[in-house]
Design a protein that fits this description.
single chain, alpha/beta, Carbamate kinase, Archaeosine Trna-guanine Transglycosylase, Chain: A, domain 4, 2 domains, 8-stranded mixed β-sheet, 5-stranded mixed β-sheet, 18% strand, globular, binds glutamic acid
């Protein structure tokens, strides 16, 4: 199962973490970038299409600007990203030039992915680049993305890119070997889990316990990323990128790393985008009857089942649907603003007509715009 999946994956998104290619003390490490470039070239020679999501801009910028510590203040972080990103790309250019591989820089923000038109546009651009045999190297556009609209970490960005390009596999190259039965730093008897068929609550809990030093994401963001793309049918491999040759070895079916299998049921691209790329602007709490109608009978959400609205949100915004206990069970695009919904909640369609006036839609969230989580 594991071997087959890894051997047959054709389109692969490889996320390269900061700690693999840079350190705060010495900045970028071109020799590591060259080694990883060699390994990626080997995958391409094997007939695979590779896209890289690379961190390292901020860490590289810290060195260039001679900052004493990782910047806390956003403008300084953004300045570091700006000087670091060009250095990062320059190192990739040089490393891949040796191998006659052309690279392209793509900088994305959450907004590029949250707007459906821009999302599709980014997809076409990346597909065109792949068509030319170019290797896309993607990072978050840290310099312009303010805190509220940041994707925030490159594990999540890589998951969104894997969905964007309909990848077969997401590979997260890290400085850890993969997912262990327990935290290996605390318990030496902990063993690496080669295959994770399903991301259960226990796996998520375990992942929350460990973290790596450099970079933003620990194991928790990696497992969250695996869960995200898993819903779209994309498997995730977490593997140690510090060990020379391990990446091609594992993809050829060898031992190493942890593979998280994907769900079989594949959400459509649009529904996946609603569920995992968009951020909810508000919440709608519904009664048990509505929970049942939405989750069991595939119905649209009507005003009569709504108990409480938390806004503000506008027509067309993404919102979360909560059950009686406040647990999010669905997400969708809402047809009414929070102000109007607050007046409509609990009312039957005829009552809405009489008390508020005729409305363009009967459904508060149409089933086509609703995803059960
Ligand atoms: N985009 C950031 C950078 O290039 C890194 C974010 C992350 O490591 O998750 O420095």
């Amino acid at each position: 199962m594991r071997d087959e999946l890894l051997k047959s994956a054709k389109r692969i998104v490889v996320k390269i973490g900061s700690s693999l290619i840079a350190s705060r003390a010495s900045g970028l490490r071109p020799e590591q970038i060259e080694r990883l470039a060699d390994e990626i070239a080997a995958l391409r020679a094997d007939g695979r299409e590779v896209l890289v999501v690379s961190s390292g801009a901020i860490v590289s910028g810290i060195k260039k600007l001679q900052l004493k510590e990782y910047p806390k203040n956003l403008p300084v972080k953004q300045a570091a990203a700006a000087v670091g990103q060009s250095r990062l790309m320059w190192a990739y250019e040089k490393a891949f030039d040796r191998l006659n591989i052309q690279v392209a820089q793509i900088l994305l923000t959450h907004q590029d992915l949250a707007d459906r038109r821009r999302f599709l546009n980014a997809r076409y651009t990346l597909t065109a680049l792949i068509g030319f045999g170019v290797l896309p190297i993607i990072n978050e556009n840290d310099t312009v993305a303010v805190e509220e609209i940041r994707v925030g970490d490159n594990d999540t960005l890589a998951a969104q890119v894997a969905h964007l390009v309909d990848a077969d596999l997401l590979v997260i190259l890290s400085d850890v070997d993969g997912m262990f039965t327990e935290d290996p730093r605390k318990n030496p008897a902990a063993t690496l889990i080669p295959l994770i068929p399903e991301i259960t609550e226990e796996i998520e809990r375990k992942a929350g316990m460990s973290s790596t030093f450099e970079g933003t994401g620990g194991m928790a963001t990696k497992v969250r990323a695996a869960k995200k793309v898993g819903e779209y049918g994309v498997a995730t491999l977490i593997v140690n990128g510090q060990q020379p040759g391990l990446l091609p070895h594992v993809l050829a079916g060898g031992l190493g790393g942890s593979l998280f299998l994907a769900k079989e049921r594949r959400l459509t691209s649009r529904k996946h985008w609603i569920a995992f790329t968009l951020r909810a602007r508000g919440q709608i709490r519904v009664d048990p009857g509505a929970v049942e109608a939405l989750t069991q009978r595939g119905k649209s959400l009507l005003a009569s089942g709504i108990v409480e609205i938390t806004g503000p949100f506008e027509t067309g915004d993404p919102v979360s649907c909560l059950d009686q206990d406040g647990k999010e069970f669905a997400k969708g695009l809402v047809n009414f603003s929070s102000d109007l919904l607050d007046r409509m909640k609990g009312l039957k369609t005829q009552d809405i007509q009489q008390q508020i006036g005729p409305q363009e839609y009967e459904e508060v969230i149409h089933r086509d715009n609703l995803v059960i989580l």
